[in-house]
Amino acid sequence: MESKKIYYWSPFFSKVATVDAVINSAISLKKYNKKLYNVSLINVFGEFTEYEKKLKENNINLINFKNSKLVKYFPKPSYLRRRLLTIYIFFRYFFSLKNLLKNDPPEFLIIHLITSLPLFLSLLFKLNTKIIFRISGYPQLNFLRKLFL
Asked: What is the CATH number of the domain that holds 31?
C-alpha cells in the first residue's frame, strides 16, 4: 500500500504554543493513524530548523524552502510589521509553494498561519490537493476571512 502525503504549511514569526501544536499534530498523524502517511512540515524560512532532531525522531520530514535572509531582520513583529512580513512571504514564496504543490502534490495540505498564500494558490491553479484549514482559538472574522470561511 502506497503511503499518502500530508504537508503542513505553518510559517510562524515568534515562538508560541502553535509550534508545539503543529509538531504534535504531525506526530499524532504518524503514530495513531492506521493508514500510512508520509508527513512533512514545510520549513518556509527556517522556523522549524531548531526542531529538526525531534522531527527526525518521529519520522517527520522537513521540506526546506530557500531561506530569506530578510525575515531575520524584521524586529519582533507589531501589527504593521506582521502585515508587511505576511505580504513579503506571500510574494517571496509564491512560486516555491506553487511548484511544490504542482510537482509533488500531497493528498492533504494542512494550513495554519499565513493561510492566504495556499488558499490563493488553490483557487488560482485548481490544485489536486485537499486543504485542511486549521484554526486555533477564536478567529477574528474580518471581511476576507468571512468570505473564505
From this structure: 3.40.50.2000
| Domain count within the chain | 1
Handedness of CA 15, 21, 45, 48 (dihedral sign): positive
Q: Please say whether the dihedral angle defined by the alpha carbons of residues 65, 69, 70 and 75, taken in this order, is positive or negative.
A: positive
Find out whether 38 and 4 touch, Cβ atoms under 8 Å: yes
81-114 pLDDT tens trace: 778 888 888 999 999 999 999 999 999 999 987 8
Name the residue range of residue 91's domain.
4-148
The closest of 7, 34, 17 to 118, measured between CA atoms, is 7
Entry pTM: 0.85
| Backbone conformation region of residue 59, classed left if phi is above 0, alpha if psi is from -120 to 50, else beta | left
Q: In what order do the strands lie in the sheet with 130-133?
A: 61-64, 37-43, 4-9, 108-111, 130-133
